[in-house]
Each structure stands twice: as structure tokens, then as C-alpha cells.
Amino acid sequence: MRATLETIEQIEKYLMNEMSSPDKMAFENEINSDPTLKSQVEMQQQLVEGIQRIGLKASAIRARRKFQIRKWSIRTAIAVGVMGAGLAAAYFISNSNAANEQNGSGDAVEEYDSQAQDIFLDEDDSLFLENNEALKQEFFEINQERDTVIESEEGIVVFVPANSFDTNNEDIDFLLQTALNPEDILAANLDTKTLDGDTLETGGMFYFDAFADGERVQLVNDLIVDIPANPEKTGMQLYEGVQDENGDLVWTNPEDLKRPLIPVEITELDFYPPGYENWMNNRGYENKEFKDSLYYSFAFDGDDILYNNLRQDKLDDFQPGSFSVANMMMMFPKLPQDTLGTQQLLGGGLPESKHKWSKEVIALGSNKYNVIVGCRKPYARSSSLGRWNLKKDISFSNRNNIKEISNFKSYEIGFSFDIEISGSVSTQLKIKHIFDNTAAGSPGQTFSTPHLKTMNLIFDYNASNLTDEAPQTGVDPASIKAIWNQKFNETNLATKEFEDRIPFIHGSCETKILELYINNLNMNISDVDLMAYEMGGGSKFKEFAALGQGKVDMSSAHAKMLNGYYKKKREAIQKAISQINSSYWDEQNELDAAYEKSKSESDKRNRDARKTAMQNEVDFNTNRVYEELGMKKDRRRNPRIQTMRTNVNNNLAQDVPDLNIQANTASQIIPTTPQRNIVRGRVSSLGWRNVDCLMGVSMSRQTVQIKGNGKQSKITYEKWEMKISNEADMDEVRVYNIPQEFNSYVKLRKGSKGYSYRLNQDLNYQTVALGWNSEGVYFHTETSRPGNVEVALEKVEGDDWKEKLKGLLPRINGIQSEIDFADLTQKDLNRKNTNKFKRSLRSKVEKVIFKCRIVEGHSEIDPIIVNDVEIIEANNNSVSNISTPIINDKNCDVPPSAPGSFSPNNDGKNDFFFVTFACEPYQFDITIRDTYTTAFHSTDPNFKWGSSNLFGKLMVKDIYTYTINYNDDARSLPGWDHTLKGRVRVIL
Amino acid sequence: MNENKIINYLQDGRQEKAFARLYKYFPKVEKHILVNSGSKEEALDIFQDALVLLYQKVNAGSMKADVKVDGFLINSCKLLWSNELRKKKVRSGDDSGLGNLQDEDGIEELEEKEIKFKIVDEALQKLGSKCKRILELFYYKSLSMDQIAKEFGYKSVKSAKVQKYKCMESARKLALQLQNDKKH
Predict the structure, then answer these.
(1) A66·B20 Cβ contact <8 A
(2) A109 with A93: CB under 8 angstroms?
(3) Cis peptide upstream of residue A336 (ω within 30 degrees of 0)
(4) Contacts with B117 from chain A: Cβ below 8 Å
(5) For residue A504, what pLDDT is reported?
(6) How far is B94 from chain A, CA to nearest CA, in Å?
(7) A-chain residues within 8 Å CB-CB of B166?
(8) Cβ of B99 under 8 Å from any chain A Cβ?
(9) What is the per-residue DSSP string for A735-786?
(10) What is the pLDDT of residues A823-873, one digit of tens each?
């Protein structure tokens, strides 16, 4: 160190009395002897004094601020004011109030344009803690009759409720000092040590004080303080500052700080079950009302489901009309129509039939039944029937909703089996059997080819699989609807934080978890999270609780009011939806029943017409033949009675039947075509018994020559077949043959190739074909000629199409009624298709909404309310035409098949490309492409690709590739269960 | 206000607290000064000087036992102001309202030292802020060299000391310079 500096050091020591006595004396001698040193010492001393003086002066200046309390008054009642800093300059006002008013001569009393007031405080007052020195002071004048919100310059927001201070004085001077950044904290010497000696990491410190009329006042309730906080730092706690024994400020009493929730507009949040909106949007259902109404249609029943018991006084203000039930469009069926789970079984007894077939069904338990099918004597004799070979002889035309067939048993006269179903069932039971018509004691003719008997087996499933015990799993949509509205704005529910919890609330599948949040609106949401976790909502709620989120403040009275509102509203919604559902479906069921009634009338009509036509034809044939043969028939007799005998030489009939007439008068039936099974018994001899033959002949419709009375007559039948080219486009087609000569008609059944009939050449027929689809009604008529014909149905136009059509047709009552039926059915088609679609959509979406539910795979259910069972009699076609192999166990795993080639030339052979499924898939998609383009696309598993929907008239390529996607049952996941590819060749 | 307490504060380093409490006497002083052609700023200045004097008096131990603090303060102010006025060549006002002046020693000394004070004050003001701070911390706040070294980030106490001495040296030089300037 340099000499000069050393000198300075020495002088310092001397001045500060740090020298030892001998050193001091020596130095003093030196000073006295050296004037330069002396002046240096003096100078240094003065400098030191000067330093001290400056320090003191600064201190004195600072001391001023401590004493002065300046307040700023705020003109508005709710003060969200940002007060300027710069209160450092204190200004001292004289004691007396008088001085405030009159300023004296100098008028320099007020430096700032504000009112100041003396506040006298104890010298020990915390306000005078050193820490308070360096912080900015902000003063706010509060009227404590109102709630006040104060915002400081640094962003601290203080909520001061009304009447928070222990004084009757309205005007409160509220002091706020903040130290939010490190500089302030350091400058104010604020320590960050707790009473235990731990160091805290501070998020900010603040100091509050309040005075009224110059006297300090105390708080009587809590203030709420929002501190700008680092969102990353969790676990911040609020410490209270106290003075320890040294008089230093230490922090104690930590209290958890809650991160308050930020309210948003509740209608903009998403309370749907997770994935629901996406699922709907992906399928094109983007309309919000539609999505809402579909979702809400799944509202639970509630405890009080019987609408008739609805008590008006329970609803009070919340009448159904008050929340737009009309807009809900509750068109969706709720399959549980009544909760008793009754299943109605239809079927039962058959009308009288020749062979006395019958079936009986016994309910074995839930969804399980025992079906007994029998055939009574006299037409069936056990010995020739033998045992029914059930595996071979019984089949079902369709296996939808049949879970299992088991426990086959065979009896003399019939058989039985157990059937387990999972929904409505409508199937034909096909029974192949052999009849032995040997009467007791007579040699009989055994027909070796088996008969086919079909019976309808219909189980109408009027209620759902849900029993009373099965709880409705999932979160009740009625509850969601009750809270998802503006009434719940400014509550914990109307926050993004709550929205974050919604997917997990849905995931818990419990409405009671949702209700925890609704019933505790006044609680910190993290506390409710904990309750949800403890109630079994899932571990995610524990994670939510750890976030320590707070609440949207509300009074407990308000929370209670909202809770009450929610309960009432939920109940009202459930009832309203239940009512809408049942009233809609009641109506639909009525309409369905009306349709079914109309249909069964039509069926009966057609049967009767056929009988009448048959009868007419027999009469006609009989008359003609008899005329040709020169015979007369007895008018007294019912021509159907076949037992009259005639005197050979006498054409007159006699009453007494005689079976022993000579053979030379016997006629011979010479069938010109192979004999077929016929309904009747034997034909043996001439005479009136020929009427039998004619009856039988008329019914069998075979060309036949009849000899009698030495003459010959012939009844000729010719085959006629009609194909309808656009039949595939129709929902239903009906073809009638009307013999002009009669007042009756025959409705034809569709065979494998088309509609066929054997025309009696002595009659003139008009064929009428009616078809319909959602677009309208289609029609064709022509005179029938033997041979094959292909026609296309044409759409009828105009509002008066019915009259026109009726005019074209013979005035046969039955036919006229059939046209009415066509009209009615066509109109009803849209309704039925809509319902079918709705039910289908609903059952698919149920799985999306309620992920916890295992929804039984209902395929499209048409509620069938059948009052009558239709019997389909044995077809006159050869049994060998029935080509369907008898499959007992429908194996749905058999992959679908499609032809490798087809020729769409409308020749009746392989005209279409289509896919055959063992069991109809739930969802289906096929795309047929050539290299560059899509030639065909369909989502209907029953599609047919043929000449009418070929892409372009000319095929660019003759080989196409197709991709088939299908799902076995409803699924909400993306993707397909099965994908198949193949190729098909188009041959023209 | 308890006088003893104030004196205690002054003596144990809590002078600012004492000063704060003493401000209650300021209105009187201010009034006097204003009445006697002074301004508010001048009143403040005088009062603060008086506070410093009081401090020095108390700490120097030369405070007579029976002198009251308030009296001392106010008297000091009056005297200081008279001084000031004399300097301004303004006729001094009426002293009568202020009460007896009992202790004039400190004032006379002050007048003598005033010139020196001025030079020193000016020199110190001219020092760089760092030097001012070091000197303030050591001589006014009486922090240890250890603390000062920490505050300024010096690696060793020695380097801090050296810096302090250097600052003192600069201050001295400045003061001498000013002295010479004044002489000429």
C-alpha cells in the first residue's frame, strides 16, 4: 500500500480511538510536530464528520415521511383505481383542522390537492417498523357500506366486503403497502425467515392498515386478496408477519393459498360425454339442437316414472313448457317403455287348418321359451311319420336375435325345442315333413316327397332387457341439462377447470359424482375433488385435488338456492323427456298397429279373394266341361260335394252316393304333365265325382283331358311368368292376376324367378303389379299371355293417381282396396323408415354416450304387433324348388361370399353382383372400383349391383376390384371389424 | 413523547426513529420561519440541520442534563435561521416569540465550522457514488469491513480497506482543491 494510504489508515485508527495508548501518544507527538500531518488529520476528521452529517441529514429527511400520512380520496364508490406511487414526498400539515381550511398567508399548506388528516399513532406502532420505510404506500378511501374492490399499482387486488371494520364510521382509510419484487423486498429490509428460522421463497409481501377518524380500526371479517402469482409455482402459502423478540419481522402461520377459479360463460363449455360430439360430427349430424336432443333423450327415468302420478305442485316454477320442451324434438324411442319387463309372446293358436298344425309356447324364464309344434291326426299317422329328424327337418328362415336353440325333443305328433332370444324375433320355422294319408284300414297312397310346412314364430319384444334391478349406469343426461345453462354462470361449474373434470365425471359412470360438484358450489373445487376420489370416482380425482384449485366465490345462500333449483329441474326434465318419449311412441305404436291391422285386412282380403277366385274357377271349369261333355250338373248340390253318383244312362244326378259304379263309366284323368302333390285326396270314378276331379284339377292347375259321356273335354293351363326389372328398387311389390270373367283375383307370390301362374286358357286375365318405395307408388298392368315377360313398374304421377288407377282396373272391391292399401303403406313408409333409422342411430349412440353400459346388440328392431298369425300354406311348387339348404345352426362367422363374375344383361341369370352374408352385418360399406374411379358404392348390405346402377353404359374394364368393410355389431370406435377385398368380372 | 426514549434512540443508532418523532415540533418552527421571510423548503432545511445538531450533541455527551430536547431543537432552529437571514442581509425578525435561548454554544461553533462544512460537503458530493457509499456505510452506518466487503463483492477485507482509503484520499484531494479555489 502506498504511503499516503497508510497515513490515512493511521489517521483513521487515531480518530476512531483504535490505537493503543503508547501508539496514540506517539502519534499525537507526530501530529504536533508536523503541521502537514496536522492539517491532514483535521481534514480527515472533517471529512468523517461530513460523512456522518450527510448521513444524518438524509436520515432526518427520511424521518419526515414516516410521520406524514397522506391519503388520496377516490371519487368513485367501487375503487378500482391504480394509485400513483410517489408518496415519498411527505407533506406536513399543521395540527389544527382550522389550518386545513384557511391556508394562512403563505398558502403553501397543501402541496397536493388532497385532504390530509392527522393520524396519531403510538411510537411503537407497526407502521413505524423500518420495513415500512421503503415500500410504496397507497391509501384508499373506502365507504364501508358497500363492497369495494381495490387494485394496487402492483396488481394486488383486494376485495373488501361491506362492513368489514369494527367501526360505525362509514369512511375508512385503507392503507396498502406492497413489496412484490425482489428490489422492493431488499430495500425494505423485509426478511423472509419464518419463526422457525426457515427461509421462504416469497411471492410477494403486503401490508394492510385501516383507520377511521384518525384511529386505527380492526377487521371483522376476511378480506380476499388476489396476488399476481407465478402460475408455475404451486404450493404457495400465506404467512402472517409478526415481530419476534428482536423486533424483527418474521413470518408465521402459513395458510394454504387457493388458486381461484376463473369463471367463463357456461354455454361455451363442453359438458357432453367424451367423444360424443366428435362421433356425431363425423357422421354428419352437426346440428346442435339435434345433438342435444339425442343426448337428452337418454335421460333417466327418475324415481317417479309414472307420468300419471306427476304432481303439479312438485314442479312449482319449473313447468315443462318453461324450458322449451317443444324444441327438444324427442323423437327417439326409449326402449324401456315400461319397466316391468313383460315380454309378450305372439304366436299361439292357428286357425283351423286341414292338418291341424299347432304350436304352443311356454315361457321358461327371462328370454327363454319352449316351443312345441305338433300336427294332429287324422292326417298324420305316427307310423309313417316316424320320429322327426329335427336336425334335418327343421330350419329357421332368419336367426336375428335368436341366441340359442337347444333341447330338441321329438314326439309322435310333433317336436319341441327351447329357444333363447335377445330381442324381438320374427322368423319362419320351416318344417319338412312327410304325410301319410292312409286312413285307418284303407290302403293308402304314400307321398314320398316331403311336404314343407312353414310357421311364423314371432316374439314381440315390448320391453327392454333392463330389469328393475339393473341400475341405469352412466351420468344422467337430465342432470347435465339441468346445470348446463346460464343460471349456473359465476359458479364453480362455469369454469374451464370444471370442464377439465367433465370427461372423468362421465368416465366414472355415476351421476352422484357429478352431483358432488353441484351440491358443493361453495367449496373449493379441490375439496370436492377429494370427495369424488373417496366416493370411488377414480384416481384422476386425486390428481385434480393435488392442484389445489379454489372456487368461484358465492354466498352459501346462493349456493343453496342453486342446489334446490338443480334438483327440481332435473326431475322436471326427466319427466318431460319420459312423457315425450312415451307419447311419441304411443303414437307410433298406434300407427304401427293401424298399419298392421290394415295389412292383415289386406292379407285376409287376398286370401278370401283367392278362395273366391278358386271357387269361381271351379264353377267355371265345371260348367264348361259339363257343357262340353253334354252333361248337366245338379244345381241343388254344392259343387264342392263330390259324392253324388249318376245313372250312366241317365244324366240326372241322384242323391245317393254310390261308390261302386262300373268302371266303364269311369273317367280317366290323364294328366299331361307329371302329377304333383295336391291338397286333396283320391280321385276315382266318373260321374259327379268328376266334380272332385275338377276341383282338384282346378286347384292343381294342370292341363287335363276329361272324358265323359263319350266326349272329351280339356282344361288347359299354360305357364306364365313375369319378372319385374325394377323390383330391387321397391320396398314392396304386389302382383295380382285378375280373371276378367270373375269378380275376384289372385294375389301372386314371388317365386325364385319371378311371379308365375298357370293361366287357365279359357279365361282372360289381366295382370296388375303394384310397387312402392319412399319416392312413391309404381304400377304396371297388362293382359296376361302365357310365357315369360319382363316389365318395369312405372311411377304414378299426380294427386289423383288412385282414381286413375282404380279406373283402369276392373271394379273389384278387393282390388280397389288393395290400391288403397298400397297408398297407405307407401305413405307410412317414410314414418317407418324414419323410426327404423332413429332406433338404429339411437342404439348405436347409446354405447358412445354410456361407455360403461354393455348394450345388447339390438339390430334394427321393428316392433311388430301382430294380431294374427299368417299361415303360409304349402306352395304348389315342387318341393324340390326349395333350394335353401337346411342349416340348423347359423354360423355368423362364415365369411360373406360374392360371385366372381356376373352378367348384367337382364337375362335372368346372374344379373346382379351382391354379397351374401351368413348374418346381416350391423354396418356395411362396399366400394367397387376400376383402376381410376369408383364405379359403385353402397352402405346397404342388401345392395345389388346390376344393369340399372352400373357405372356408365359401357364398361371400361371388365374386371373390377371391390373392398367390403363391415361390423358385426354397433361400435363407436373408428375402423371396421372386417375388411375383405375381391375381384369381379363383368361379362356382357 | 418521552424525552428519554428519544435520547436513547439517538444514542443507540435509531436516530431516524427519533427524528421521526421529533417532527412534531416542526409546525412551530415552520411557522416562525415562514413568518420571518422564509420558505417551506428553508424551514425544512433548518429543522433538519437542527436535528443533526441534536444528534451530535447527544452523542458527544455535551448535552446538559436539564436541557429539554424540544427547547434545544426550536432554539437551534431560530438561531440557525437568524444566521441564515444575516447571510441574506435581511433584517432579522422578531425573536420574542420564540422563548429564551439558553444554549448558544453549539451555534457559535457551528458558525465557525460552517465554512468548512460547506467545503467538505461539496467535496463529498463530488465523490463517485461508490466511494460515497463505502464511506457512508463505514462512517455513518458503522458497518464492519467484513460486511462492506460482502456488499461490494470484494474478495478480501483488505481490498475493501484499500478502496476505502483511496476514497478518503480522493475526498481529501477534492476538499483541498475546493479550499484553494475559495481562497482565490
Answers:
(1) yes
(2) yes
(3) no
(4) 46, 50, 53
(5) 92
(6) 18
(7) 5
(8) no
(9) EEEEETTSS--EEEPB-SSSEEEEEETTS-EEEEEEEEETTEEEEEEEE--S
(10) 888 888 878 877 777 777 777 888 888 887 764 443 333 332 222 222 222
Give the mutation candidate from B172, B174, B179 for the A interface (greatest A CB count, under 10 A). Answer: B172
Cα–Cα distance measured from residue A132 to residue A184, given in angstroms and rounded to the nearest whole number: 11
Find the residue in A nearest to B175 (Cα).
A43
CA distances to A207, B74, B124 from B47, rounded to whole Å, are 31, 8, 22
The gap from C-alpha A281 to its chain's centroid, in whole angstroms, comes to 12
Residues of B in contact with A123 (CB under 8 A): 1, 5, 17, 21
CB pairs under 8 A between A and B: 115
Neighbours of A850 (CB within 10 A): 19
Collect all residues of chain A within an 8 Å Cβ-Cβ radius of residue B176: 43
CA distance B178 to chain A (A): 12
Report the C-alpha gap between B6 and B47 in whole angstroms: 16
Q: Which pLDDT tens digit goes with each residue over A967-987?
A: 776 554 567 777 888 888 877
A616: which residues sit within 8 A by CB, 6+ positions away?
A: A739, A741, A742, A743, A744
Nearest chain A residue to B6 by CA distance is A123
The pTM for the full model equals 0.38
- A486-520: b (≥16 Cβ within 10 Å) or e: ebbebbbbbbebbbebbbbbbbbbbbebbbbbbbb
> CA–CA separation, A426 vs A404, rounded Å?
14
Q: Give B80 to chain A, closest Cα distance, Å.
A: 15
Grid cell in block for residue A554 = 358465492
Q: Is the pLDDT of residue A170 over 80?
A: yes
Q: What's the Rg (C-alpha) of chain A?
A: 50
| Spatial distance between the Cα atoms of B103 and B65, rounded to a whole number of angstroms | 12
| Residue A761 C-alpha from the chain's centroid | 60
**Alpha-carbon dihedral angle through residues A16, A18, A24, A27, given to the nearest 10 degrees:** -60
Radius of gyration of chain B (CA): 19
Find the angle CA(A210)-CA(A216)-CA(A222) to the nearest 5 degrees: 45
CA angle A917, A920, A921 (to 5 degrees): 105
- CA of A610: how far to CAs of A605, A656, A699, A812, in Å? 8, 32, 11, 13
| Contact across the interface for A57 and B169, Cβ inside 8 Å | no
The residues near A609 (Cβ < 8 Å, ≥ 6 apart) are A744, A745, A746, A747, A812, A814
Count of other CB atoms within 10 angstroms of residue B104 = 12
Q: Where are the beta strands (DSSP E) in A611-672?
A: 645-646, 653-654, 670-671
Chain B's closest residue to A52, CA to CA, is B140
Encode pLDDT of A20-49 as tens digits.
888 889 999 988 998 988 989 988 988 888
What cell does A496 get?
A: 374451464
Rounded distance between C-alpha atoms, residue A492 and residue A554, angstroms: 9
User: Chain A within 8 Å of B21 (Cβ-Cβ)?
Assistant: yes
Contact A688, A723 (CB under 8 A): no
Place of cell 317336436: A415
Q: Of A8, A60, A108, which has the smallest distance from its Cβ to B40's Cβ? A: A108
Q: Which of B1, B20, B120 sits opposite A47 (nearest CB)?
A: B120
- Picking from A348, A371, A453, the residue whose alpha carbon sits closest to that of residue A866 is A348
B140:A55 CB<8 A: yes
Contact B141 A55 (CB under 8 A): yes
Q: Which fold has domain B127-184?
A: Arc Repressor Mutant, subunit A (1.10.10)
Dihedral angle computed from the Cα positions of residues A270, A276, A278 and A281, in that order, rounded to the nearest 10 degrees: -100
